[in-house]
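Appendix C: a fully annotated inverse folding record. The material below is reproduced so that readers can follow the format used throughout the book. The structure is listed first as tokens, followed by the designed sequence.
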């Protein structure tokens, strides 16, 4: 009996090897350098003094506790708020539902630190609402900083993720189950607790773990409003910047610790997603019903109130971008001065954002489509390993990967630090999973017999792939590419460590202007980023024919 060959060197195996080498050089090698730098010091040899220093000082260990406290509270609040809103939107006929969902999608794609910045404008020490509160109640409100501020801002920016996942689960739920429960006398809260929540609980848990990872890895929000409340990404950044000349092993050690934490969380999420998911197929979807009276009023007030709060940051940023300003102070009157300053002083940041992101997305599409095809059609040990590899950068905090790239490419023969190429690498590696997932999803829907028929008529495997498979995969490729691009232009945590003056991007420019107190210019740049996101989202809707996104 002929045994199945473990290794067959054909066209697709060659492609697998090439892609694997791509990840080996641009991901595994940088992460290896982080690990080595954490345990090896040139003067001392192999040592674990950096880990001893971290775990021996409360200043550092309390940072882990701080991060876990914030992310745990944020995860619980987002799960409650996102699930409640999704359930309400799918069971009650809310006016303007389509517009509401577009606002939710925009908030998902917007960088959380822009929300933090806008809340500083509203509830900072000299914020508009802060001044009103202090005058009205004759108090000295200190502003939206520290633990409370982090929880509020991260909850408002991340709960839409829960909403999107739970909405998908509710769309897959068969309404006949609910009707059967109602016919047996299960209504109201009892029906929700006993029927609906258990069915969507795996989705809630999976989405909550994703929120947990995003909150844990967020850099911009705690950097702007955390102040004395330290979190792990901020500690990694500050340690790397301040200790690079004296003790680079310490920043590397912190990076290794957070990689271990996020990897454990990722494995838990993978277990929940793969083992605990309940398969549902809706022959009859849940139809929202018109609710009148006080219940209908409360449903609309709650929905519109939540949407107003998550839209408020974007509205504030857009409005303030047209105000006359002197540093942190907005004076009376309107002008385009902030936009003029943005284009004249920060023009290269705007140009860099579009140029770098378009180059990155071309590479993402090429690599992503190949990886998707290999993992779906040519499944073996190597392609399964490749599939796991391309997902890991998605869960690693950007600051960690930024440090990894600096360690790997700051000396010859790989001297890339300070160049645009190193930022593009960060974009490609971190945002590749969107294109891989969307391309793989549509590839699963294509019958392999179509490709086999092409090859039986004499077409080569590559010609079949180019002429048959790729055109059919087009919608999935476009969907993933647009999602990848929209997240690339909002990247901050990795690029903030990698940029130099000539390679700064929009998000870096916004962040640095906020830190410098140039709020008007920061608002103008944020508005440009928001408009770009909205335009690309509309293009996404037009090309895909959808009014929703998959994460």
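Designed amino acids, in order:
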């Amino acid at each position: 009996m002929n045994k199945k060959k473990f290794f067959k060197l054909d066209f697709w195996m060659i492609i697998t090897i090439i892609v694997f080498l791509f990840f080996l050089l641009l991901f595994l090698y940088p992460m290896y350098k982080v690990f080595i730098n954490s345990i090896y010091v040139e003067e001392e040899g192999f040592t674990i003094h950096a880990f001893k220093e971290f775990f021996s000082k409360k200043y550092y260990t309390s940072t882990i506790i701080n991060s876990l406290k914030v992310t745990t509270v944020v995860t619980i609040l987002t799960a409650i708020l996102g699930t409640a809103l999704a359930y309400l939107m799918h069971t009650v006929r809310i006016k303007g539902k389509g517009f509401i969902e577009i606002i939710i999608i925009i908030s998902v794609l917007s960088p959380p630190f822009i929300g933090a910045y806008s809340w500083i404008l509203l509830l900072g020490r000299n914020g508009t609402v802060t001044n009103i509160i202090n005058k009205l109640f004759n108090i000295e409100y200190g502003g939206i900083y520290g633990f409370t501020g982090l929880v509020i801002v991260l909850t408002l920016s991340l709960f839409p993720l829960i909403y999107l996942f739970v909405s998908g689960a509710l769309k897959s739920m068969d309404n006949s189950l609910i009707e059967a429960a109602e016919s047996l006398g299960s209504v109201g809260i009892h029906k929700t607790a006993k029927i609906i929540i258990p069915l969507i609980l795996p989705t809630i848990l999976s989405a909550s773990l994703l929120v947990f990872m995003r909150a844990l890895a967020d850099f911009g929000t705690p950097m702007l409003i955390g102040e004395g409340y330290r979190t792990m990404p901020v500690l990694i950044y500050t340690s790397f910047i301040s200790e690079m000349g004296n003790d680079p092993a310490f920043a590397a050690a912190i990076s290794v610790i957070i990689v271990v934490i996020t990897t454990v969380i990722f494995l838990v999420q993978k277990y929940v997603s793969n083992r605990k998911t309940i398969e549902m197929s809706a022959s009859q979807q849940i139809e929202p019903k018109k609710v009148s009276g006080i219940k209908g009023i409360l449903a609309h007030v709650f929905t519109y109130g939540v949407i107003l709060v998550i839209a408020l940051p974007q509205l504030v940023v857009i409005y303030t971008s047209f105000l006359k300003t002197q540093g942190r102070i907005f004076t009376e009157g309107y002008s385009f001065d902030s936009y003029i300053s943005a284009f004249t002083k920060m023009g290269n940041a705007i140009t860099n954002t579009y140029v770098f992101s378009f180059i990155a997305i071309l590479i993402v599409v090429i690599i992503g489509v190949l990886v998707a095809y290999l993992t779906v059609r040519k499944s073996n040990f190597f392609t399964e390993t490749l599939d796991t590899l391309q997902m890991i950068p998605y869960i690693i905090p950007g600051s960690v990967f930024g440090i990894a790239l600096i360690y790997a490419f700051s000396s010859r023969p790989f001297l890339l630090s300070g160049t645009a190429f190193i930022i593009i690498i960060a974009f490609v590696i971190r945002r590749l999973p969107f294109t891989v997932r969307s391309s793989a999803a549509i590839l699963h829907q294509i019958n392999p017999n179509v490709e086999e028929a092409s090859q039986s008529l004499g077409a080569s495997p590559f010609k079949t792939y180019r002429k048959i498979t790729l055109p059919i995969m087009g919608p999935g490729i476009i969907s993933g590419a647009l999602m990848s691009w929209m997240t690339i232009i909002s990247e901050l945590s990795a690029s903030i460590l990698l940029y130099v003056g000539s390679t700064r991007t929009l998000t870096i420019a916004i962040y640095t202007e906020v830190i410098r107190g140039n709020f008007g210019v920061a608002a103008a740049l944020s508005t440009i980023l928001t408009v770009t996101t909205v335009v690309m989202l509309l293009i996404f809707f037009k090309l895909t024919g959808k009014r929703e996104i998959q994460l």
